[in-house]
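Dear support,

Our group has been running a series of protein-ligand predictions, and this particular one with zinc ion is the one our PI (initials K.S.) wants archived with full inputs and outputs. We had some confusion internally about which version of the output was final, so please treat the block below as the authoritative record. The input we submitted was:
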Amino acid sequence: METKLCRHCNTIKLKTDFNKCKPNKDGLQKYCRDCTKKFGRQNKERRAARKGRVMKPYEEKKFAHITEDELLMYLRKFTEIHGRPPTTSDLEGNPDYPCAYTYYRRFRYKVPITKKADNWNAILQLSGIEPLDYFSIWRAWEYLVECTIKLFESDYVFQSTNITKDYRPDIVIPSKKLIIDAATSNYDSKHKKRQFKHAMEHGYTVEFWCLYKTTKNGINEPYLKYVFADEIIEKLQAIGEDELIHKIQTLLTKHDTYTEEILAHKKEYIKAKILEMATLLKRTPKYRDFFGKPDFPSATTIKEIFGSFNEALIYAGLTINKKANATADPQIAINDLIQLTETLGRLPKIQEIGPPNTTYTIKVYRKHWGNLSNCLQEHGYKLDKQTIVDSTTIKEDRVFYLIAN
Ligand SMILES: [Zn+2]
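Confirmed final output from the archive:
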């Protein structure tokens, strides 16, 4: 083995203990690696001192030199202890484990190609752990949360649409002004914060029901409470709901995501809600009856679950009025259109036609009159094309104004 003398510490060392430096005759640096490291550290300390800072003594990183196999062993250890694979946030700031960054650094760049993994799930697979399908787990968890709520609250609403337009919390308990959202863990994200803000703005208190706890603290807000599975299990133990407890406890390890059970459960819930609506209206509900009703599932949800709205009605045991579906009443169509045009102050756009704005969809207007303006003109309305002028350009906007004769 070739050796070389370090000019600083005056020690003869192996050539492999020197860093490379191409311009030098032997292609190596003058000083050994240990000395180079020392210089670097001294430089840093000098710079810090100039700025009036004092550096902490050097500390070797705990997991800096462990092998790839040892790194993977830590993942298996976590999985064994916690009954599920770790997430990246589980390892962050956790002194017992290397952090996710250590894994990425190692498995993205340093190891031979056969061991390369560039995302967390791939790294888990390297250690022989099957990664969790977080989406299905979350779906199943949402379902188990709902099953729990059902046992304690009588007036809960599942995925109510009307707190705000783009926020559909998992569960709303109107009488308590409480929102319960199922989350796999107490992770902190922009999305969760936004949800919480929406709820707060509408005067609701929020509880995030979490399947497991990460080392992170989550969102710290006065009207936000984290409820963890252990607390929920305690509540269920008090009323002897052993089956439900078992499902919660094994959700992460058994990978059973209850897909069919969830669908059946949702169908039953919607059936009850459709019947409730039927009692309220004293007739078979229509698709549009479910628009913008905060205490009922949305029309879209019903369609999603059953494939079609009629299928849902059949499931609920209601009779479908096929005739009403077959023929549209032109008088209702024209009245709707006139009303909508007057409200908007212009000719409605095609996408504005249909429930809840008008009874019928654009198809009906096309079939009877060809298009919307024809329909209005035939009924004595004159449409005036106006030119809108702004400071720089004259542009013709395709806006029509309605002038009644
Ligand atoms: Zn040296």
